[in-house]
Design brief:
Blueprint: H1 32-51, H2 97-100, E1 108-109, H3 112-118, E2 127-131, E3 134-141, E4 155-161, H4 170-180, E5 191-197, E6 200-206, E7 211-212, H5 213-218, H6 226-246, E8 251-252, E9 261-263, E10 269-271, E11 278-279, E12 288-289, H7 301-306, E13 308-309, H8 311-327, H9 343-347, H10 371-384, H11 395-402, H12 416-428
Parallel strand pairs: 1-5
Antiparallel strand pairs: 2-3, 3-4, 4-6, 5-6, 7-9, 8-11, 9-10, 12-13
Length: 474
């Protein structure tokens, strides 16, 4: 995908080339100009490297995500590869690009100068965000070719460059090109083309105007409506189903999380960032053995412990994201009270309580969620998070379970039972229930001080950008 909150500061990462990320505990508390200057500063430094090398730079996803996570993505312990399965991942080396780059005939090959002009010389105003191994810039190209065009005309694209000292290297860049160059699906981000000149790499992706799910779910004062959450989950589930069950060769995504789910103008979800994707087991193989890579809090426990990777590892990660959507909590959040840092561990005791399920639901929704839908979604999350991988559902079964949920209208706020429970909850401690803190746009009793946004698919042009809006943006 392109970039994400978990991928802003190279100095904060501690796991070599692993994509398991670690943030400073207080990072989310930074705001205003400091975030903006640090963010742009790191991208400007990479831009200098780009300009000094008369050639193209590499990228990964064309969508940018928010930059500064709230200390949630922490590195999992790396586990050595097991020798009892298929395709053991070898240690990184310097690949021969001519031999390893399998270019799809559908991809456009750009020159570095074309992308330099398309992004207006990689100027800071064009920055959309920063990923694990490069910055993402907005650009404009000819709709049917590679020539740059005037900003605001032609086709809007996201161009990602590869930092030479980035924590994701050429191997992940190749995975991006090789997978997304061949895989076409409405719920996968479209790779338009690439640039490879000398030791520089860039990738060109479709522009996703709504940005990342992570931004909408955790970084905006107005809550994402229930129906939109269910719609996004359904789209993301369809993307995983395609990878696992419908693609010519099964693919394990390996990095499913909110910052890797991008949204188009109508809030249709698309999976991005295939740098960690792996071919799934084939024949009589039950799993792939590989170094443990991913994001702590999302990775399946059996994968973290053994390095055995299967499609059910992605199903577990989907369960974590489903919980995040239901609760409004991050998978890992050290700012929560003790015992609530890990979302799955906190939620497990509540997953079987049918009559008290409301305690898990994001309080910012203020009862604007379907009772039946929430109950079914919680049951689905419990199945996806089963400790036994074999007991987890197929993603196609998840899709079928999710299909009716966006349309259910039995809102909890209209239920006398829910209202009574809310009164009981508020009388005990209105600001501490569900481990919630007072959030922007809400009063101490969690009543909204602003109205819900209207999500009609064409409201504004909020792109996944850094937490601080850039000049000229709403």
């Amino acid at each position: 995908m392109v970039l994400g909150p978990d991928s802003i500061n190279v100095a904060d990462w501690t796991v070599g080339k692993s994509k398991l990320k670690k943030k400073k505990d207080g990072e989310a508390e930074e705001s205003g100009c400091w975030i903006k200057f640090r963010f742009i500063g790191s991208c400007i430094s990479s831009r200098t490297r780009v300009d000094s090398s008369i050639s193209g730079t590499s990228t990964q996803y064309a969508e940018s995500k928010s930059t500064n996570d709230t200390g949630r993505d922490q590195p999992a312990v790396q586990v050595g590869s097991s020798s009892s399965t298929s395709n053991v991942e070898s240690s990184p080396s310097t690949p021969n690009t001519g031999e390893e780059l399998k270019v799809s005939s559908q991809l456009r090959k750009f020159s570095f100068n074309e992308l330099k002009s398309a992004t207006r010389n990689f100027r800071p105003e064009s920055i959309l965000g920063e990923g694990g191994f490069g910055c993402v810039f907005k650009g404009w190209i000819n709709e049917n070719g590679t020539a740059p065009v005037k900003p605001g005309t032609g086709l809007s694209v996201a161009v990602k460059t590869l930092n030479h000292d980035g924590l994701q290297g050429h191997k992940e860049w190749l995975a991006e090109v090789n997978y997304l160059g061949d895989l076409l699906h409405p719920n996968l981000v479209k790779l338009i083309g690439y640039c490879i000149e000398d030791d520089q790499r860039l990738l060109v992706y479709e522009f996703m105007p709504r940005g990342s799910l992570e931004n909408h779910l955790f970084r905006r004062s107005l809550p994402l409506p229930w129906s939109v959450r269910m719609k996004v989950l359904l789209g993301a589930a369809k993307g995983l189903t395609f990878l696992h069950e419908e693609a010519e060769r099964p693919v394990i995504y390996r990095d499913f999380k909110t910052s890797n789910i991008l949204l188009d103008a109508d809030y249709n979800a698309k999976l991005s960032d295939f740098g960690l994707a792996k071919d799934g087991p084939e024949g009589d193989k039950t799993h792939v053995s590989t170094r443990v890579m991913g994001t702590y809090g999302y990775a399946a426990p059996e994968y973290v412990m053994t390095g055995h990777l299967t499609s059910k590892s992605d199903v577990y990660s989907f369960g974590v994201v489903l919980l995040e959507m239901l609760t409004g909590r991050r998978s890992m959040d050290k700012h929560r009270p003790n015992g609530e840092h890990n979302l799955v561990e906190w939620a497990q005791p509540h997953l079987g309580e049918r009559r008290r399920f409301y305690r898990m639901i994001d309080p910012r929704l203020e009862g604007r969620f379907s009772i039946k839908g929430a109950q079914k979604a919680i049951q689905l999350a419990a199945h996806c998070l089963n400790r036994d991988p074999k007991a987890r559902p197929l993603m196609s079964d998840v899709v079928e379970a999710l299909k009716p949920l966006p349309c259910l209208k039995d809102m909890a706020c209209s239920s006398s039972y829910f209202q009574a429970m809310q009164s009981e909850r508020g009388s005990s401690n209105p600001s501490a229930q569900n481990g919630s803190r007072v959030r922007p746009g809400y009063s101490r009793n969690m009543q909204p001080t602003k109205s819900f946004p209207k999500f009609n698919g064409h409201h504004g042009n909020s792109y996944y950008r850094s937490p601080v809006p850039k000049a000229g943006e709403p």
